[in-house]
Amino acid sequence: MSADWTEVYRSTFPDLVRFLHRKVWDLERAQDLAQEAFVRALRHEPKQPRAWLFQVASNLARDEARTAIRRKRHLTLLKSETEDRQKSMPDPARELEERERMGQVRDALDALSERDREVLLLWDAGQSYTEIARQAKLAVGAVGTTLARARRRLAEAYSNKELVDVAR
Amino acid sequence: MSHVDQGILHAYLDGALDELPSGDARAIREHLAACPECRALLEEEQGIREQTLAILAGPLPEVELPPLEELRLRAEATSPPRASRGRRIHRMGWAASVILAIGAGYALRGDQVIPLGTMDAIDGPNVPWLEPLPAEAGPATVLDASANDLLRQAVQQSDARADRAASAPRERRLPNSVIAISTERSVLKAPADGDVEVSSAGSVVAEVDSGDPLAAELLRALPLEKLVALDVVTLQDRLLGVPAQQPLASSLLDLTSVAATTKRLSGGLSVPAVRAIRFANEDLDEGRVARRGRVAMASASRAAAAPAFSTSDASLRPRERRPSARRGGAEGQLVVPGFELISLENIEEGPAAGGLRTLQRLTQVDTLELLHLPEGVVPGDLAAAEQDGIVQHAAFRNGEWLVMRAPRSKQELEVLLERLDANR
Q: Shortest Cα distance from B257 to chain A (angstroms)?
């Protein structure tokens, strides 16, 4: 066995959950999927565990999305999250604010094309241009262009959303 | 040099200039230092980049790190069992790794899964339907009204289930395996308004519990030969109709079971053709998505001899031991003429139970191992050859597999096989 799995695990797992969380928008589910990705990695022992894990995670999230009608599901999840958090979080007002913000981030991300979103989330999870290119099936030279577009759209969508929310 | 484009500016901001293949990182840096226009643009892009950093920064969910050991145990629990007690025939994972490494298709005959790599070795009149799937996009497929109704029903069910699953995560999974009807590189399109239309590549239109009568109806109604893929999803080791104690860890075994499942699903139906079953367990090879194992299934009409859709569920029942008389009959056939026979034994343990194994001496140091597998056992059920340099050659003969192993090239093994065949 070549990879130091303890180290890979420690350094990659949180990034993976973060990445997945923005795809499935359910923390518990994101953790489950991240674990599943690791179980598969331990079985396959890929030579480049990090890149491999992100690819598997992405596939798992996609499969996950297949079965869900996103928006409805999102609402239900938000509801159950509220219930969950009420047990653990002492400050409901702050929690509400946080959740609203998360909803805005999500809506802004939803405004991106699938590939732009994937590239942006991979970058956000700390993947290099080379790794992003490989996973998103882009030329390395196209990653910057994609990120430029994705960032611009995200910023626009997010600020539009804020304006709408403020106006209400 | 000319002005720097946005993409390169972002690569610059992300510290990724050196990763660009054509980018002369130094020239770009020098240009940026000298060109006020580009610097202005850079500042603007930097502003956007920082905005997105702030948007995405958000409160990071607290991540629980479960013990790695726990995941290891899970990984082992779903790995193929290792060989034991010195028996030579066991289930092994090698077949799975071969599948992934070559990323090749698989052909299916009855419940036999035939790696395409060995297709040359298969002879007989039943070969023509063993075609690889088309790599290119097919034309849009228009469903007829009844197929469309069924599909819409399936979509509604899937959606309703997804909704229920959202509120009750424990019910997220379907109890049985799932048939996911999906399109890939082709459009499945219904004629009227409000009908199912899927245009994005690889989308799953609907998932249907294989135990649901709707599954059978759909299989009957959909123009399967036009669908690019039909996923059969296995849930861990719980696969429809397969006894729980039967390990299904290796992909090849899964494929076999998928075949059995599909056979069962379509059992008794006059399905014109199942063009493809896509094995939906995601698997990867070094970070790239290996092409999924694909199973082309016999068209019942084109290959009448291939019992792809038999109503019997024989493959799901415990294998019956072969009468010894039959074994005796096989004995004389399992010897390549001209080589000393070292041993001939019945295989009484392992998945290949009921088969025969002979060992012949090729030279003073080399031996030829021949395995005659009983019906329903595929080469993938065998343990990998124990030594390096051993080449395996499998051939399908009269509904059963013959596996040759020796430290010889594939071509030489083929010649030996011909010699054996000529003798039979």
A: 20
